[in-house]
Queue: 2 jobs
Job 1
Amino acid sequence: MTRLPCVARMSARARHGLIGSMTETTLPEGTLPHDWRMVDEGWGRRSAEFATLSEPANCREYVALHHALDVRAGDRLLDVACGAGLALELAALRGASCAGIDASARLVEVAQLRSPDADLRVGDMHALPWGDATFSVVSSFRGVWGTTPGALDETRRVLVPGGRLGLTVWGHIKASPGAWALAPFRLAADPQVRNQAAMVSLGRPGVGEQVLARAGFTDVRRIRVPFAWEFPDPATYARTLASTGPAYVAIQQVGEERFLAEAERTAVEHRRAGLPLRAEIEVTGFLARTEGAR
Ligand SMILES: C[S@@+](CC[C@H](N)C(=O)[O-])C[C@H]1O[C@@H](n2cnc3c(N)ncnc32)[C@H](O)[C@@H]1O
């Protein structure tokens, strides 16, 4: 484990800036410092493509976690790292009143288009700009990582006593039949690839449970979350992948042309006549509660 300075517990004024204290926390080996203000550069640069190609491919995950959390009318739900907000739109269809936060201003703009009535903020998940005990449910879809454990303290703070938390993280990627679909991210520079490994550490056996218990959550339960990306052809897959943050990091290293070419080449090997390209990837979910009345 590496001891790194980590931004934790910042003021609610930190909607757009980095205001607050630096504390030390224990992070997995390989973790790179995280500056949320740089996130939009990677995640927001292709916001329309991310919103319309990438997010819809995650629909099974959203539906399954909302179902496991029993999201319903009367819930006040916060989605942490809400991206372009498709999951929030689906939660509202179940009757929840919705809020969301993401570091990418351009993705939040799409989320607001999709959910005009939702309370959406641009900001850092380590400094949630809401008061204590505001929400009955907090979700996060591959938004809280082994490299961002401080975000869980903030999540607990904004949940009511007995509030429900649902998180998803990548599971055992190498053992997944669709592992090939994430392989182009490994074109990034070595430290970035090591950081990707540190990010997915929450999914390892026992790790997420321990981190959640340490953050003060109870009734921690691990669930399997269905996840299968489907694309009509290799070019659409490559374009979709290129709209994500980890792709941006790889593109910085090898250039966009090579990234797209490698992604397409990989996908062609998995093409089957008359069928969509399909990549099933293991995703792990965690359900937990805050202490107190239900
Ligand atoms: C894997 S994407 C998930 C997005 C969305 N939940 C979805 O299902 O498509 C990770 C998201 O985390 C956001 N993000 C990264 N660091 C953040 C931070 N410190 N605070 C808030 N959001 C952050 C990115 O902008 C991106 O939208």
Note: Residues 83 and 134 are 21 Å apart (CA to CA).
Job 2
Amino acid sequence: MSASDIDTIFALATAPGRGAIAIIRVSGPDCAAIAERLAGGFAFDRRMRLRALRDPATGETLDSALVVGFPEGASFTGEAMTELHLHGGRAVAAAVMRALAALGAQPAAPGAFSRRAFDNGRLDLLEAEGVAQLAAAETEAQRRLALWSLGGAASATVAAWRETLVEALVWFEADSDFGEEELGGGVAAPGYARVRELVALLDAARAKGDAAARIREGARVAIIGPPNVGKSSLINALVKRDIAITSPIAGTTRDALEARCEAFGFDLTLVDTAGLRVTDDPIEAVGVARAQAAAETADLRVFVSSPEATADLTTRRSSDLHVANKADLGCIGEDADFTVSAVTGEGLDALLDAIGARIVDAGAAQGAFSTARHLAALDGARAALARAAQAPPEIAAEECRLAAQALDSLIGRVDVEHILDGVFSTFCLGK
Ligand SMILES: Nc1nc2c(ncn2[C@@H]2O[C@H](COP(=O)(O)OP(=O)(O)OP(=O)(O)O)[C@@H](O)[C@H]2O)c(=O)[nH]1
Ligand SMILES: [Mg+2]
């Protein structure tokens, strides 16, 4: 239909299945011509209109829909775009998509719209990832994290780092160009100072990044400790559901049991474990081994003790959150971080707050680089800068260029096709 070699693409942008409305997006050079055949001509002025959509072959009415056109340069992709807001039945969207295909539009691959937005300079890579993260956000913290990326704050952070890098580079190059004879020694000193400054900033970002990854991917908290201290009772009280068997018999819990805790703005799974003790019972021994494995892989260990637990506490680590349970019985663990009672509920809110704070520092929730791709780029830049700090100016300049490349890969400025394909293929259809 057009001489352009760019396809006009379409996809269902809303979740497949039954709903009140379904939105199909169409983007590309033939958008207006296709929309005219389907819905009659209308201006691409970003206003909605009610139109009958007709099968171009038979003239049969397919739906009565709201249609809107976005002109080239003022749309999500940067191309001419149409959105068709249909009634939500599966058959409606299916019939309209058949009509679009018959009119020469191509079904879009996942992420194709965002890819076009990126290619047309509407979004950089971090912003595009923010779009995908926002579409996938299930918790408050995930939503905030996604908006930090989508809103350009992530890109602005990278730009500021890059500026510091360029300043360092200027000093290193001045040193190589003019050398000691003309300007005296130590020309490059401010360059090294910038490098150290940036290493500290990247370290801080990296520390937040791990916490932010837990926001995106969810965190696991293992509840461990000697038998019978009330680990299972504590989990039941924290999630307000009776999910774990509790009993006065030591060695009740055998399997590691998981419960999703809804108290936070991010996914958090509490793992109940078998009480840690030396045992002759082969089944309990397996449980103890599983408890230890769960504790090793957890993002946080909560070590529970109780007044009557005589088992030794040597498995406790200083990084554990130490909780003394059964406060209602009177005597409490004097060296514990928290004193609680699974029976009366005393201290549980404070414990939940502390767990949340240990998992996610507030800074990370406000925004941080969190995907494996981001963290690899930060690590790459950090490594180059660490080498620069030790190197003579000429080599330090080269390392700074490498660090700049790593940072550029974050926003997609270096055109590395496999990075782009990798990122966009993880998007959902219609994005
Ligand atoms: N008084 C009092 N009793 C508690 C409290 N928490 C748990 N218990 C009792 O302590 C006993 C053991 O509780 P569980 O929750 O099964 O203990 P556990 O640590 O999971 O034990 P194992 O699975 O055997 O390792 C039960 O009889 C509970 O009712 C508490 O806060 N106060
Ligand atoms: Mg138990």
Note: The mean pLDDT is 88.
